[in-house]
Amino acid sequence: MHPHDALAEIATLLERERASRYKSKAFRAAADAIAGLTDEELRDAASLRRRKGIGDSTFGVIQEALAGRVPSYLEDLRERAGGERVSALRALLRGDLHSHSDWSDGLTSIELMAAAGRALGHEYVALTDHSPRLRVANGLSPERLRAQREHVAAECRDGFTLLWGIEVDILDDGALDQEPDLLDELDVVVASAHSKLRMERAPMTRRLVEAASNPRVDVLGHVTGRLVEGSRGTRPQSTFDPRAVFEACAAHGVAVEINSRPERQDPPDELIDLALGIGCLFSIDSDAHAPGQLSLIDYGAERAERLGVPAERIVTTWPLERLREWTRRAG
């Protein structure tokens, strides 16, 4: 295989495993460093070692690929990924409504995220970078969000649509952290709480119900805010009245996100059961912050299938035209 392809695939699989971002970025940097080099240039080991972005591990991968072998590092990653179960529901998913680029706290460009979506066979992916108040995630001001539009439009080709969206922060009173008129222009609005997750039950319930009742909201993201594993440690779920929140979602046609990140597994199984009984729609999303993480929807699909969520109630199984009709429902 070509060394560039080997390096890029390693980066993708490391992202799926949620390995250290520095590790996956090192392999992407190495792939960028050798892009466009001729075979003769690649075989000039001394020059290659001096090239910025090439370290010991990436140099070894390049040498193995040049020798006509699948690099051993890549073989190990493939073996780990190949042992995971893929659900029947996964094949029905047409897209993903929650992803991030390096315009906010994602690791790579919009172009690479869109390319990964096309490679997975998605019909659509929504780019939903963060809103202004989430400064730690480099949230987008209205001006930056508007500037993103042309970059998103440029990736709509070859039967694939990159939707222009946002993961808008739910403020303490349930309002949304972006200009209302700008939210009206977007294709998809995912609303999530990122701060004061330990609010008392009554105000947190009012906060989430207010957001779910907002006609501009399409998806209620990682509703409990919990973390159950991973490098960030664990975090208990927020305390609120889930029945009230899910009834608001059902009444306003807002989808409850089944967040596929293994460290979130949000909502918990019992809350998915509750939302299902209330009549909610669902959106199985990756919450990807790197190209390889778009495939995390495998885990969300497995959970939804295990819990008996019908495909018809999952908006990310819908074709693009039907999805657009749903997101325009408030108008």
Keywords:
331 residues, alpha/beta, DNA polymerase, domain 1, TIM Barrel, 2 domains, 7-stranded parallel sheet, 10% strand
In short:
By secondary structure, this protein is of the alpha/beta class. It has helices spanning 3-16, 21-34, 39-42, 45-50, 56-66, 72-82, 110-119, 142-153, 180-185, 201-212, 242-252, 269-278, 297-306, 320-327; strands at residues 95-96, 124-127, 161-169, 188-192, 219-220, 255-259, 281-285.
Q: What report would you give on this structure?
A:
The protein is of the alpha/beta class and 331 residues long. It has two domains: 3-82, DNA polymerase, domain 1 (Orthogonal Bundle), CATH 1.10.150; 89-327, Alpha-Beta Barrel (TIM Barrel), CATH 3.20.20.140. The protein contains 14 helices and seven strands. The chain has a seven-stranded parallel sheet with strand order 1-2-3-4-5-6-7. Strand 6, helix 12 (269-278) and strand 7 (281-285) form a beta-alpha-beta unit. Helix 10 packs parallel to helix 11. The N and C termini lie far apart (50 Å).
Tell me the radius of gyration.
21 Å
Kindly estimate the percentage of residues that lie in beta strands according to DSSP. Answer: 5-15%
Helix content: 40-55%
Number of helical runs?
Answer: 14
What is the CATH topology assignment of the largest domain? TIM Barrel
First and last CA, distance: 50 Å
- Quick one: CATH class of the largest domain? Alpha Beta
Q: Which superfamily, in CATH terms, is the homologous superfamily of the largest domain? A: Metal-dependent hydrolases
List the domain count as a whole number.
2
Strand order of the largest sheet: 1-2-3-4-5-6-7
Based on Cα principal axes, name the global outline: globular
**Poorly predicted regions:** none
User: Which architecture of the largest domain would the CATH scheme give at its second level?
Assistant: Alpha-Beta Barrel
* Averaged pLDDT: 96
Query: What's the SSE pattern?
Result: HHHHHHEHEHEHEHEHEHEHH
- Structure classification: alpha/beta
Main sheet record:
7 strands, parallel
Care to count the β-strands? Answer: 7
